């Protein structure tokens, strides 16, 4: 893998014996894997200075480098802002409150939370028949 325009350099070199050499600029930021004729190269934690045209090239004995068209990589500075996260959180909370207000306005809240009271009559029943009093009399 070569950089060709901004800072021409060798980024990754892999020999036929799978010995690899990674440039110091991409150490711990480059992974590659080979499967048959296919090679996958992944660059991590890209920085603005990594912007360049990258090409894969193969060296064949007796011939100069054979290369295919490259891939232009343009890295722009990306600032992570916690303000955006908090702003999104506030918007979501406000939308939730608005939804709750709309829902509660359509429902009669007083009726919903009011306990349903069933009036029970205050009735006392006494059995005044002679038979029932006779069973409770004390006998000597």
From TrEMBL:
GO biological process terms, alphabetically, are:
adaptive immune response
Q: Which UniProt keywords apply?
A: Membrane, Transmembrane, Transmembrane helix
Q: Where are the transmembrane segments?
A: 85-109
Q: Does Membrane show up as a keyword for this record?
A: yes
Q: Name one GO molecular function term.
A: signaling receptor activity
Gene Ontology CC: membrane
- Highest taxon of source: Eukaryota
- Its name, as the record gives it, is CD7 protein
Gene name on record?
A: Cd7
């Amino acid at each position: 893998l070569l950089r060709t325009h901004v800072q021409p350099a060798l980024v990754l070199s892999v020999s036929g014996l799978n010995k690899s050499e990674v440039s110091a600029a991409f150490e711990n930021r480059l992974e590659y894997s080979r499967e048959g004729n296919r090679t996958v190269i992944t660059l991590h934690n890209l920085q603005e200075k990594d912007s360049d045209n990258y090409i894969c090239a193969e060296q064949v004995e007796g011939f100069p480098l054979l290369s295919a068209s490259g891939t232009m990589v343009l890295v722009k500075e990306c600032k992570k802002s916690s303000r955006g996260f908090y702003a999104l959180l506030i918007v979501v909370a406000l939308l939730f409150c608005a939804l709750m207000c709309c829902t509660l306005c359509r429902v009669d809240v007083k009726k919903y939370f009011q306990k349903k009271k069933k009036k029970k009559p205050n009735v006392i029943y006494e059995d005044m028949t002679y038979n029932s009093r006779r069973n409770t009399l004390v006998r000597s």
